[in-house]
Amino acid sequence: MTFPAKIAVPDNVLRIAQKLEDAGFETWCVGGAVRDTLLGLPHHDFDLTTAAHPEKVRELFRRTVPIGIEHGTVAVLDGKGQPHEVTTFRKDIKTDGRHAVVEFGGSLMDDLARRDFTINAIAYHPLRHEWKDPFDGRADLDAHVIRAVGDPNWRFQEDYLRILRALRFSARFEFRIHSRTLEAAKANAQGLAQLSAERVRDEWWKGIATAKRVTKLLALWRDVGAARIWLPEIQNTGNEKRETGNVDKLPRDPVLVSSVLASDPPSLLTRLKCSNRDIERARAIKTWRAEYPDPRHLPQVRRWLAKTGAYANDLLAILPGINVSRFPFPVSRLPQVVESVRAAQDPLSVSDLAVNGADLLAAGVRPGPEIGETLGRLLDAVLEDPARNTRDELLQRVGHRG
User: Fold this and answer.
1) Average pLDDT, integer, range 158-168
2) CA pair distance 130, 48, nearest whole angstrom
3) Which of 199, 212, 312 lies closest to 252, judged by CA?
């Protein structure tokens, strides 16, 4: 298929390109926006690559941010403060599989030759409406193929993260990975152990967010060997057929997806250096995912909500992704029952009670642990029957101790 005569590039990007060109610096649109435009998919913004060195870009534009200046990238802010990435033509001169040392002053061809896959190595001139496609990326887009630029072994050894990017693009676009590229990914998979946990986590998160089917993404990670290295709690669950088939029904929240798939969710998220908040969410899911209440028994539901607290919504959200046949009651009805409990504003915590610690002291309860124990006993009575949550009823129960 031939390239379109022209594509729509936002005016703010055109103005940046025009200013660079007027100053004598060749400038092209590259990257994901070019690829996604050709695929007819939505995208965020066009990145620009230029012959201008980073310091020259900063001279030409009044408002810039050096977001990756050591790699040649400067964000140029438009009139609305929106950043647009401008990166100098680069070529790699040294790499260790994790980080590349780049040299500026190359050509567009040098810059395209260092990119990961042919579908990402297509350039469009936004002013002259010319195309550069030295590695037949358009043909691979048409054939639905992920193919490395040049020798796939070299591409992956330059940066092992490219293996995970290949898996993400394959799952996102439902493209097959070219046989030589796939073989090289498997052959170099051990290099993934050299990557930082943060970079791996970001790729896994992006993959979950963008994959047509998460089960396809997971199958690719397993096939290549990436799951063995970075997701062993998922790799070794032994419950693939029982659980993973439902994971595609989950919201694309990476914590929820990872926690449903993993045998030990907090361990997995700790390895990926997730935030403490995300690890606590994973820990709650591990603790409670086999402890759902019977929706037909309202006091059970209220007690469950009281115990799970802020994590109840996560536990409800994962229900479509787990094997609910293990429960001897219709647990799939739980979200509707919880909604009715919340709508009724049933008391679910000590702070919801019609009495407080001061009331108990005035009623003769001794200061200290007995206050908390009494409030807990009163809450249990109210969880059984919310109608008991009146000041007179609760103080009467304090008097009777039962």
Assistant:
1) 97
2) 14
3) 212
Q: Which residues pair with 103 in a beta bridge?
A: 91
Angle at 39 between CA 37 and CA 43, to 5 degrees: 40
For 17-29, what is each residue's pLDDT tens digit? 999 999 999 999 9
Cβ count within 10 A of residue 208: 23
Strand partners, 95: 100
Inter-residue contact 387 to 302 (CB < 8 Å): no
Give CA–CA dist 89/106, Å, rounded: 6
Token digits for 349? 């915590």
Q: How far is CA 281 from CA 258, 308, 350, in A?
A: 11, 11, 22
Tokens 């001061």 belong to 358
What is the phi/psi pair of residue 127, to 5°? -100, -40
Instruction: Give 90-117 pLDDT, tens digit per residue.
Output: 876 556 556 666 677 789 999 999 999 9
Token representation of residue 118: 């042919």
pLDDT of the residue at 1: 67
The alpha carbon of 79 is separated from its chain's Cα centroid by a whole number of angstroms, namely: 30
The predicted model scores a pTM of: 0.89
Rg of the chain over Cα atoms, rounded to whole angstroms, equals: 28
Residue the block writes with tokens 């001169």: 93
Tell me the two tokens of residue 300: 């059970």
Tell me the backbone φ, ψ of residue 279, rounded to 5 degrees: -65, -40
* Cβ-based neighbours of 27, under 8 Å, separated by 6 or more: 16, 17, 20, 21, 48, 49, 50, 51, 52, 86, 125, 126
Give dist(CA 192, CA 212) in Å, integer.
24
SS3 content of the chain, % helix, strand, coil (to 5): 55, 10, 30
Residue with tokens 């007995």: 370
